Amino acid sequence: MSGHMDISRNPGEAGQELRRIVRINEEIKSVVATAFKINLMAMNAIFLAKRAGQSALGFGVLSNELRRFATDLQQQMTVLRETTYGSVSTVTAQVKQSRVTRLLEKTRSDARGEGRAGIDRLLRSRHEAALTDSSDKISALNRRLSQMIADTTQLVELGSVLARSAKIEAAYGGGFSASLMQVSSDFEDTIGEIQRSLESLTRHQSEEFRA
Amino acid sequence: MKTARPIYEDDNHKWLAIVRDPDRPDYLIDTNEYLVVSNDDAILLDPGGSEVFPAVFSAISTVFDPRRINKVFASHQDPDIISSLSMWLEFNPQVKCYISWLWQSFIPHFGGQGETFIPIPDNGMDIVVGGLRLQAIPAHYLHSSGNFHLYDAKAKILFSGDVGAALLPPGEDGLFVEDFDRHIRHAEAFHRRWMGSDKAKRDWCARVSALEIDMICPQHGSIYRGADVKRFIDWFSRLDVGILKS
Ligand SMILES: [Fe+2]
Ligand SMILES: [Fe+2]
Protein backbone atom coordinates (compact mmCIF):
# COMPACT_ATOMS: atom_id res chain seq x y z
CA MET A 1 0.00 0.00 0.00
CA SER A 2 2.45 2.58 -1.13
CA GLY A 3 0.51 4.82 -3.55
CA HIS A 4 0.21 7.81 -1.31
CA MET A 5 -2.42 10.16 -2.63
CA ASP A 6 -1.33 13.75 -2.76
CA ILE A 7 -4.00 15.89 -4.34
CA SER A 8 -2.06 19.04 -3.57
CA ARG A 9 0.75 17.92 -5.89
CA ASN A 10 -1.25 16.23 -8.65
CA PRO A 11 -4.12 18.22 -10.04
CA GLY A 12 -6.89 16.02 -11.36
CA GLU A 13 -6.36 13.40 -8.72
CA ALA A 14 -9.19 14.71 -6.57
CA GLY A 15 -11.62 14.14 -9.43
CA GLN A 16 -10.18 10.68 -9.95
CA GLU A 17 -10.58 9.89 -6.27
CA LEU A 18 -14.18 11.16 -6.24
CA ARG A 19 -15.06 9.10 -9.31
CA ARG A 20 -13.52 6.06 -7.65
CA ILE A 21 -15.64 6.67 -4.53
CA VAL A 22 -18.73 6.91 -6.74
CA ARG A 23 -17.94 3.56 -8.37
CA ILE A 24 -17.60 2.03 -4.91
CA ASN A 25 -20.88 3.62 -3.85
CA GLU A 26 -22.71 2.25 -6.88
CA GLU A 27 -21.58 -1.26 -5.91
CA ILE A 28 -22.61 -0.66 -2.30
CA LYS A 29 -26.06 0.30 -3.55
CA SER A 30 -26.40 -2.90 -5.53
CA VAL A 31 -25.26 -5.00 -2.56
CA VAL A 32 -27.82 -3.22 -0.33
CA ALA A 33 -30.60 -3.99 -2.82
CA THR A 34 -29.53 -7.63 -3.02
CA ALA A 35 -29.25 -7.95 0.76
CA PHE A 36 -32.81 -6.66 0.98
CA LYS A 37 -33.86 -9.33 -1.52
CA ILE A 38 -32.15 -12.06 0.54
CA ASN A 39 -33.95 -10.82 3.64
CA LEU A 40 -37.33 -11.26 1.89
CA MET A 41 -36.32 -14.62 0.43
CA ALA A 42 -35.26 -15.82 3.88
CA MET A 43 -38.59 -14.81 5.37
CA ASN A 44 -40.40 -16.82 2.71
CA ALA A 45 -38.04 -19.72 3.31
CA ILE A 46 -38.84 -19.63 7.04
CA PHE A 47 -42.57 -19.88 6.28
CA LEU A 48 -41.99 -22.66 3.80
CA ALA A 49 -39.90 -24.60 6.34
CA LYS A 50 -42.68 -24.21 8.91
CA ARG A 51 -45.20 -25.65 6.50
CA ALA A 52 -42.87 -28.51 5.62
CA GLY A 53 -42.70 -29.29 9.33
CA GLN A 54 -40.48 -31.91 10.92
CA SER A 55 -38.64 -32.83 7.72
CA ALA A 56 -37.41 -29.25 7.19
CA LEU A 57 -36.20 -28.35 10.67
CA GLY A 58 -32.59 -28.00 9.53
CA PHE A 59 -33.68 -25.94 6.56
CA GLY A 60 -35.62 -23.64 8.90
CA VAL A 61 -32.58 -23.07 11.10
CA LEU A 62 -30.48 -22.21 8.05
CA SER A 63 -33.14 -19.82 6.74
CA ASN A 64 -33.04 -18.00 10.04
CA GLU A 65 -29.26 -17.79 9.76
CA LEU A 66 -29.55 -16.47 6.22
CA ARG A 67 -31.90 -13.81 7.41
CA ARG A 68 -29.45 -12.75 10.07
CA PHE A 69 -26.73 -12.77 7.45
CA ALA A 70 -28.78 -10.38 5.28
CA THR A 71 -29.32 -8.02 8.22
CA ASP A 72 -25.61 -8.07 9.12
CA LEU A 73 -24.73 -7.38 5.50
CA GLN A 74 -27.10 -4.41 5.36
CA GLN A 75 -25.52 -3.01 8.50
CA GLN A 76 -22.03 -3.54 7.17
CA MET A 77 -22.99 -1.65 4.01
CA THR A 78 -24.29 1.29 6.04
CA VAL A 79 -20.94 1.60 7.80
CA LEU A 80 -19.14 1.25 4.47
CA ARG A 81 -21.21 4.06 3.03
CA GLU A 82 -20.44 6.29 6.01
CA THR A 83 -16.76 5.67 5.44
CA THR A 84 -17.03 6.74 1.80
CA TYR A 85 -18.76 9.90 3.04
CA GLY A 86 -15.68 10.52 5.20
CA SER A 87 -13.51 10.12 2.11
CA VAL A 88 -15.53 12.72 0.17
CA SER A 89 -15.12 15.18 3.05
CA THR A 90 -11.38 14.59 3.22
CA VAL A 91 -10.91 14.99 -0.54
CA THR A 92 -12.95 18.22 -0.44
CA ALA A 93 -10.80 19.58 2.39
CA GLN A 94 -7.67 18.67 0.50
CA VAL A 95 -8.81 20.37 -2.69
CA LYS A 96 -9.43 23.53 -0.68
CA GLN A 97 -6.00 23.29 0.89
CA SER A 98 -4.36 22.77 -2.47
CA ARG A 99 -6.17 25.78 -3.87
CA VAL A 100 -4.83 27.92 -1.03
CA THR A 101 -1.35 26.50 -1.59
CA ARG A 102 -1.53 27.28 -5.30
CA LEU A 103 -2.51 30.88 -4.57
CA LEU A 104 0.19 31.21 -1.91
CA GLU A 105 2.81 29.88 -4.30
CA LYS A 106 1.77 32.37 -6.92
CA THR A 107 1.87 35.11 -4.30
CA ARG A 108 5.38 34.06 -3.29
CA SER A 109 6.63 34.30 -6.85
CA ASP A 110 5.09 37.79 -7.22
CA ALA A 111 5.87 39.21 -3.79
CA ARG A 112 9.09 40.86 -2.63
CA GLY A 113 10.80 41.59 0.67
CA GLU A 114 9.20 40.94 4.04
CA GLY A 115 5.93 39.90 2.45
CA ARG A 116 7.64 37.20 0.47
CA ALA A 117 9.51 35.91 3.50
CA GLY A 118 6.24 35.73 5.41
CA ILE A 119 4.58 33.74 2.63
CA ASP A 120 7.62 31.47 2.52
CA ARG A 121 7.34 30.69 6.21
CA LEU A 122 3.61 30.10 5.87
CA LEU A 123 4.06 27.74 2.95
CA ARG A 124 6.71 25.76 4.79
CA SER A 125 4.62 25.27 7.91
CA ARG A 126 1.51 24.46 5.88
CA HIS A 127 3.42 21.93 3.87
CA GLU A 128 4.71 20.19 6.96
CA ALA A 129 1.47 20.16 8.89
CA ALA A 130 -1.78 20.26 6.99
CA LEU A 131 -0.99 18.62 3.70
CA THR A 132 0.79 15.51 4.89
CA ASP A 133 -1.84 15.28 7.55
CA SER A 134 -4.71 15.17 5.10
CA SER A 135 -3.11 12.77 2.65
CA ASP A 136 -2.36 10.53 5.63
CA LYS A 137 -6.00 10.84 6.49
CA ILE A 138 -7.04 9.68 3.02
CA SER A 139 -4.66 6.74 3.21
CA ALA A 140 -5.99 5.81 6.64
CA LEU A 141 -9.58 6.00 5.41
CA ASN A 142 -8.67 3.88 2.43
CA ARG A 143 -7.01 1.28 4.60
CA ARG A 144 -10.14 1.18 6.74
CA LEU A 145 -12.31 0.83 3.66
CA SER A 146 -10.14 -2.03 2.35
CA GLN A 147 -10.34 -3.78 5.71
CA MET A 148 -14.11 -3.40 5.76
CA ILE A 149 -14.45 -4.76 2.24
CA ALA A 150 -12.30 -7.74 3.25
CA ASP A 151 -14.52 -8.32 6.31
CA THR A 152 -17.60 -8.14 4.13
CA THR A 153 -16.12 -10.64 1.71
CA GLN A 154 -15.70 -13.02 4.63
CA LEU A 155 -19.25 -12.44 5.78
CA VAL A 156 -20.55 -13.19 2.29
CA GLU A 157 -18.42 -16.32 2.19
CA LEU A 158 -20.33 -17.43 5.28
CA GLY A 159 -23.61 -16.62 3.51
CA SER A 160 -22.58 -18.75 0.60
CA VAL A 161 -21.78 -21.68 2.92
CA LEU A 162 -25.24 -21.27 4.50
CA ALA A 163 -26.88 -21.37 1.07
CA ARG A 164 -24.98 -24.52 0.13
CA SER A 165 -25.97 -26.19 3.40
CA ALA A 166 -29.58 -25.21 2.79
CA LYS A 167 -29.38 -27.01 -0.53
CA ILE A 168 -28.20 -30.18 1.21
CA GLU A 169 -30.94 -29.87 3.83
CA ALA A 170 -33.50 -29.41 1.06
CA ALA A 171 -32.85 -32.95 -0.08
CA TYR A 172 -34.37 -34.20 3.19
CA GLY A 173 -37.47 -32.08 2.77
CA GLY A 174 -39.76 -34.94 1.82
CA GLY A 175 -42.74 -33.74 -0.22
CA PHE A 176 -41.38 -30.17 0.02
CA SER A 177 -37.97 -31.14 -1.25
CA ALA A 178 -38.44 -29.67 -4.74
CA SER A 179 -39.63 -26.27 -3.54
CA LEU A 180 -36.96 -26.13 -0.82
CA MET A 181 -34.37 -26.97 -3.45
CA GLN A 182 -35.66 -24.14 -5.64
CA VAL A 183 -35.44 -21.67 -2.75
CA SER A 184 -31.92 -22.69 -1.83
CA SER A 185 -30.73 -22.39 -5.45
CA ASP A 186 -32.21 -18.89 -5.49
CA PHE A 187 -30.18 -18.13 -2.36
CA GLU A 188 -27.04 -19.41 -4.00
CA ASP A 189 -27.59 -17.33 -7.15
CA THR A 190 -28.33 -14.17 -5.21
CA ILE A 191 -25.31 -14.55 -2.98
CA GLY A 192 -23.30 -15.13 -6.15
CA GLU A 193 -24.49 -11.71 -7.35
CA ILE A 194 -23.21 -10.16 -4.13
CA GLN A 195 -19.88 -11.88 -4.54
CA ARG A 196 -19.52 -10.40 -7.99
CA SER A 197 -20.37 -6.92 -6.68
CA LEU A 198 -17.80 -7.34 -3.93
CA GLU A 199 -15.18 -8.37 -6.46
CA SER A 200 -15.71 -5.14 -8.38
CA LEU A 201 -15.75 -3.24 -5.10
CA THR A 202 -12.38 -4.71 -4.22
CA ARG A 203 -11.12 -3.83 -7.69
CA HIS A 204 -12.30 -0.20 -7.44
CA GLN A 205 -10.82 0.06 -3.99
CA SER A 206 -7.41 -1.23 -5.09
CA GLU A 207 -7.26 1.30 -7.97
CA GLU A 208 -6.13 3.88 -5.45
CA PHE A 209 -2.96 2.01 -4.64
CA ARG A 210 -1.86 1.72 -8.22
CA ALA A 211 -1.29 5.45 -8.68
CA MET B 1 -24.78 13.88 5.78
CA LYS B 2 -27.88 15.32 4.10
CA THR B 3 -30.83 13.27 2.87
CA ALA B 4 -32.04 13.03 -0.72
CA ARG B 5 -35.84 12.90 -0.74
CA PRO B 6 -37.98 12.35 -3.82
CA ILE B 7 -40.64 15.04 -4.20
CA TYR B 8 -41.86 14.19 -7.70
CA GLU B 9 -41.66 11.06 -9.80
CA ASP B 10 -43.11 10.17 -13.15
CA ASP B 11 -41.28 7.40 -15.00
CA ASN B 12 -37.85 8.75 -15.90
CA HIS B 13 -38.66 12.24 -14.72
CA LYS B 14 -37.80 12.93 -11.08
CA TRP B 15 -37.21 15.71 -8.61
CA LEU B 16 -35.07 15.05 -5.54
CA ALA B 17 -34.72 17.49 -2.65
CA ILE B 18 -31.38 17.29 -0.85
CA VAL B 19 -32.09 18.60 2.61
CA ARG B 20 -31.20 18.94 6.30
CA ASP B 21 -27.75 18.05 7.48
CA PRO B 22 -27.64 17.11 11.19
CA ASP B 23 -23.85 17.60 11.14
CA ARG B 24 -23.95 21.12 9.73
CA PRO B 25 -22.21 23.65 12.00
CA ASP B 26 -24.46 26.51 13.24
CA TYR B 27 -22.43 29.21 11.54
CA LEU B 28 -23.41 27.90 8.09
CA ILE B 29 -26.86 28.69 6.72
CA ASP B 30 -28.89 25.58 5.92
CA THR B 31 -29.62 25.11 2.23
CA ASN B 32 -31.76 22.92 -0.01
CA GLU B 33 -30.39 21.56 -3.24
CA TYR B 34 -32.60 20.01 -5.91
CA LEU B 35 -31.78 17.46 -8.56
CA VAL B 36 -33.99 17.21 -11.63
CA VAL B 37 -33.55 13.94 -13.50
CA SER B 38 -34.91 13.33 -16.96
CA ASN B 39 -34.01 10.14 -18.78
CA ASP B 40 -30.20 9.93 -18.89
CA ASP B 41 -29.61 13.55 -18.03
CA ALA B 42 -29.74 15.51 -14.78
CA ILE B 43 -29.37 19.09 -13.65
CA LEU B 44 -28.47 20.16 -10.10
CA LEU B 45 -30.20 23.36 -8.93
CA ASP B 46 -28.23 25.67 -6.63
CA PRO B 47 -25.52 23.07 -5.90
CA GLY B 48 -24.63 24.75 -2.60
CA GLY B 49 -21.51 26.06 -0.90
CA SER B 50 -18.18 24.28 -0.99
CA GLU B 51 -18.57 23.54 2.73
CA VAL B 52 -21.63 21.38 2.08
CA PHE B 53 -20.25 19.65 -1.02
CA PRO B 54 -19.42 16.39 0.84
CA ALA B 55 -22.91 16.23 2.37
CA VAL B 56 -24.69 17.03 -0.92
CA PHE B 57 -22.51 14.76 -3.05
CA SER B 58 -22.85 11.82 -0.67
CA ALA B 59 -26.60 12.26 -0.24
CA ILE B 60 -27.12 12.27 -4.00
CA SER B 61 -24.85 9.21 -4.34
CA THR B 62 -27.17 7.15 -2.14
CA VAL B 63 -29.95 7.36 -4.73
CA PHE B 64 -28.41 8.56 -7.99
CA ASP B 65 -25.16 8.11 -9.87
CA PRO B 66 -23.57 11.60 -9.74
CA ARG B 67 -21.58 10.86 -12.88
CA ARG B 68 -24.81 11.54 -14.74
CA ILE B 69 -24.95 15.15 -13.56
CA ASN B 70 -23.54 17.32 -16.29
CA LYS B 71 -25.45 20.55 -15.77
CA VAL B 72 -25.86 22.87 -12.84
CA PHE B 73 -28.19 25.83 -12.52
CA ALA B 74 -27.32 28.72 -10.22
CA SER B 75 -30.20 31.06 -9.38
CA HIS B 76 -27.65 33.75 -8.53
CA GLN B 77 -24.07 34.35 -7.42
CA ASP B 78 -24.13 33.84 -3.65
CA PRO B 79 -21.53 31.60 -1.96
CA ASP B 80 -24.23 29.38 -0.44
CA ILE B 81 -25.50 28.80 -3.98
CA ILE B 82 -22.50 28.07 -6.11
CA SER B 83 -19.15 28.09 -4.31
CA SER B 84 -19.10 24.27 -4.60
CA LEU B 85 -18.74 24.63 -8.38
CA SER B 86 -14.98 23.99 -8.23
CA MET B 87 -15.62 20.64 -6.54
CA TRP B 88 -18.24 19.59 -9.08
CA LEU B 89 -15.76 20.50 -11.81
CA GLU B 90 -13.02 18.47 -10.10
CA PHE B 91 -15.40 15.53 -10.22
CA ASN B 92 -16.59 16.16 -13.76
CA PRO B 93 -14.74 18.81 -15.78
CA GLN B 94 -17.51 18.70 -18.42
CA VAL B 95 -20.15 20.19 -16.11
CA LYS B 96 -21.87 23.27 -17.55
CA CYS B 97 -23.17 26.02 -15.31
CA TYR B 98 -26.27 28.04 -16.25
CA ILE B 99 -26.27 31.44 -14.58
CA SER B 100 -27.35 35.02 -15.32
CA TRP B 101 -25.00 36.67 -17.85
CA LEU B 102 -24.42 39.29 -15.18
CA TRP B 103 -22.37 36.87 -13.06
CA GLN B 104 -20.55 35.07 -15.84
CA SER B 105 -17.22 36.70 -15.12
CA PHE B 106 -17.62 36.74 -11.33
CA ILE B 107 -18.25 33.05 -10.71
CA PRO B 108 -14.86 31.92 -12.09
CA HIS B 109 -13.51 33.28 -8.80
CA PHE B 110 -15.20 30.20 -7.29
CA GLY B 111 -14.13 27.90 -10.13
CA GLY B 112 -14.63 27.16 -13.81
CA GLN B 113 -13.41 28.72 -17.02
CA GLY B 114 -15.06 30.55 -19.90
CA GLU B 115 -16.51 27.43 -21.48
CA THR B 116 -17.98 26.26 -18.16
CA PHE B 117 -20.69 28.92 -18.24
CA ILE B 118 -23.87 29.23 -20.24
CA PRO B 119 -25.08 32.79 -19.65
CA ILE B 120 -28.84 33.27 -19.26
CA PRO B 121 -30.12 36.47 -20.92
CA ASP B 122 -32.25 38.83 -18.81
CA ASN B 123 -35.55 37.61 -20.23
CA GLY B 124 -34.74 33.97 -19.44
CA MET B 125 -34.28 30.90 -21.62
CA ASP B 126 -35.21 27.25 -21.99
CA ILE B 127 -32.87 24.63 -20.60
CA VAL B 128 -33.38 21.18 -22.09
CA VAL B 129 -32.48 18.27 -19.83
CA GLY B 130 -32.89 14.76 -21.21
CA GLY B 131 -35.63 15.93 -23.57
CA LEU B 132 -37.40 17.83 -20.79
CA ARG B 133 -37.86 21.56 -21.31
CA LEU B 134 -37.23 23.66 -18.21
CA GLN B 135 -37.69 27.41 -18.19
CA ALA B 136 -35.40 29.91 -16.52
CA ILE B 137 -37.89 32.49 -15.20
CA PRO B 138 -36.61 36.04 -14.52
CA ALA B 139 -36.61 36.98 -10.83
CA HIS B 140 -34.18 39.89 -10.91
CA TYR B 141 -33.56 41.88 -7.73
CA LEU B 142 -35.14 39.05 -5.69
CA HIS B 143 -32.70 39.38 -4.10
CA SER B 144 -29.84 39.39 -6.61
CA SER B 145 -29.71 41.82 -9.53
CA GLY B 146 -29.19 38.90 -11.93
CA ASN B 147 -31.54 36.22 -10.64
CA PHE B 148 -33.51 33.31 -12.12
CA HIS B 149 -35.96 30.70 -10.95
CA LEU B 150 -36.49 27.42 -12.77
CA TYR B 151 -39.92 26.18 -13.82
CA ASP B 152 -40.78 22.64 -14.80
CA ALA B 153 -44.16 22.84 -16.57
CA LYS B 154 -44.56 19.06 -16.68
CA ALA B 155 -43.98 18.51 -12.95
CA LYS B 156 -45.61 21.89 -12.16
CA ILE B 157 -42.72 22.73 -9.86
CA LEU B 158 -41.12 26.14 -9.48
CA PHE B 159 -37.64 26.26 -7.98
CA SER B 160 -37.60 29.71 -6.41
CA GLY B 161 -34.07 30.28 -5.06
CA ASP B 162 -34.16 32.66 -2.09
CA VAL B 163 -37.83 33.60 -2.66
CA GLY B 164 -39.94 31.66 -0.18
CA ALA B 165 -36.88 31.04 1.97
CA ALA B 166 -37.41 30.59 5.69
CA LEU B 167 -34.90 30.28 8.50
CA LEU B 168 -36.53 27.56 10.55
CA PRO B 169 -35.84 26.66 14.17
CA PRO B 170 -35.05 23.01 14.90
CA GLY B 171 -38.20 20.94 15.19
CA GLU B 172 -40.10 23.17 12.76
CA ASP B 173 -37.97 22.36 9.74
CA GLY B 174 -40.09 19.77 7.94
CA LEU B 175 -39.66 19.14 4.22
CA PHE B 176 -43.08 20.66 3.48
CA VAL B 177 -44.88 23.64 4.98
CA GLU B 178 -47.58 22.20 7.24
CA ASP B 179 -49.03 25.28 8.90
CA PHE B 180 -48.66 28.32 6.64
CA ASP B 181 -49.29 31.02 9.24
CA ARG B 182 -46.87 29.49 11.68
CA HIS B 183 -44.26 28.91 8.96
CA ILE B 184 -44.37 32.32 7.34
CA ARG B 185 -43.28 34.09 10.54
CA HIS B 186 -39.87 32.54 9.93
CA ALA B 187 -39.82 33.92 6.38
CA GLU B 188 -40.95 37.47 7.01
CA ALA B 189 -37.83 39.20 8.31
CA PHE B 190 -35.76 37.49 5.65
CA HIS B 191 -37.95 38.71 2.78
CA ARG B 192 -38.25 42.25 4.12
CA ARG B 193 -34.49 42.60 4.46
CA TRP B 194 -33.22 40.64 1.46
CA MET B 195 -35.73 41.40 -1.26
CA GLY B 196 -34.67 44.77 -2.62
CA SER B 197 -37.39 45.98 -4.94
CA ASP B 198 -41.12 46.29 -4.55
CA LYS B 199 -41.59 46.66 -8.29
CA ALA B 200 -39.56 43.52 -9.00
CA LYS B 201 -41.62 41.70 -6.40
CA ARG B 202 -44.92 42.72 -8.05
CA ASP B 203 -43.59 41.69 -11.48
CA TRP B 204 -42.59 38.32 -10.12
CA CYS B 205 -45.97 37.74 -8.44
CA ALA B 206 -47.76 38.54 -11.70
CA ARG B 207 -45.43 36.31 -13.70
CA VAL B 208 -45.70 33.23 -11.48
CA SER B 209 -49.44 33.67 -10.91
CA ALA B 210 -49.84 32.87 -14.59
CA LEU B 211 -48.02 29.54 -14.17
CA GLU B 212 -49.59 26.29 -13.06
CA ILE B 213 -47.69 25.44 -9.89
CA ASP B 214 -48.11 22.51 -7.50
CA MET B 215 -44.94 23.20 -5.53
CA ILE B 216 -42.70 26.17 -4.83
CA CYS B 217 -39.26 24.90 -3.80
CA PRO B 218 -37.04 27.48 -2.09
CA GLN B 219 -33.31 27.20 -1.43
CA HIS B 220 -33.83 27.52 2.34
CA GLY B 221 -36.62 26.12 4.51
CA SER B 222 -39.73 24.12 3.61
CA ILE B 223 -41.52 23.49 0.31
CA TYR B 224 -44.91 25.14 -0.34
CA ARG B 225 -47.44 22.83 -1.95
CA GLY B 226 -51.10 22.81 -2.88
CA ALA B 227 -53.03 25.77 -1.50
CA ASP B 228 -49.90 27.13 0.20
CA VAL B 229 -48.51 28.07 -3.22
CA LYS B 230 -51.16 30.73 -3.80
CA ARG B 231 -51.06 31.65 -0.11
CA PHE B 232 -47.36 32.39 -0.42
CA ILE B 233 -47.71 34.47 -3.59
CA ASP B 234 -50.51 36.51 -2.00
CA TRP B 235 -48.53 36.98 1.20
CA PHE B 236 -45.43 38.07 -0.73
CA SER B 237 -47.38 40.49 -2.94
CA ARG B 238 -48.64 42.28 0.20
CA LEU B 239 -45.30 42.35 2.01
CA ASP B 240 -43.29 45.58 2.29
CA VAL B 241 -39.82 44.78 1.05
CA GLY B 242 -36.55 46.64 0.65
CA ILE B 243 -36.64 48.16 4.09
CA LEU B 244 -33.98 48.04 6.74
CA LYS B 245 -36.09 47.77 9.88
CA SER B 246 -38.94 45.35 10.25
FE1 LIG C 1 -28.87 34.63 -1.94
FE1 LIG D 1 -29.64 31.64 -0.27
Describe this structure in words.
The complex is a heterodimer of chains A (211) and B (246). Chain A is 87% helix and 0% strand. Chain A is mainly alpha-helical. In chain A, helix 1 (13-52) packs antiparallel against helix 4 and helix 3 runs antiparallel to helix 4 (177-207). Chain B is 25% helix and 26% strand. The model of chain B has no long low-confidence stretch (mean pLDDT 96). Chain B has helices at 53-63, 79-82, 85-91, 180-194, 198-209, 227-238; strands at residues 3-10, 13-19, 33-38, 41-45, 69-73, 96-100, 117-120, 125-129, 132-138, 148-152, 157-159, 215-217, 224-225. In chain B, a hairpin with a 6-residue loop joins strand 12 (215-217) and strand 13. The termini of chain B are far apart. Classes of the chains: A mainly alpha (211), B alpha/beta (246). The A-B interface holds A 14-15, 18-19, 21-22, 25-26, 29, 81-82, 84-85, 88-89, 92, 95-96, 99 and B 1, 50, 53-54, 57-58, 61-62, 65-67, 86-87, 90-93. The site of one fe (ii) ion has 4 residues of chain B, from loops.
How would the blueprint of this fold be written?
The complex is a heterodimer of chains A (211) and B (246).
Chain A: H1 13-52, H2 57-110, H3 113-170, H4 177-207
Helix pairs in contact in A: 1-2, 1-4, 2-3, 3-4
Chain B: E1 3-10, E2 13-19, E3 33-38, E4 41-45, H1 53-63, E5 69-73, H2 79-82, H3 85-91, E6 96-100, E7 117-120, E8 125-129, E9 132-138, E10 148-152, E11 157-159, H4 180-194, H5 198-209, E12 215-217, E13 224-225, H6 227-238
Parallel strand pairs in B: 4-5, 5-6, 6-7, 11-12
Antiparallel strand pairs in B: 1-2, 2-3, 3-4, 8-9, 9-10, 10-11, 12-13
The structure holds fe (ii) ion (FE2) (2 copies).
The site of one fe (ii) ion (FE2) has 6 residues of chain B, from helix 2.
Primary descriptors:
heterodimer, A: 211 residues, mainly alpha, Four Helix Bundle (Hemerythrin (Met), subunit A), 4 helices, rod-shaped, B: 246 residues, alpha/beta, Metallo-beta-lactamase, Chain A, seven-stranded mixed beta sheet, six-stranded mixed beta sheet, 13 strands, 26% strand, globular, binds fe (ii) ion
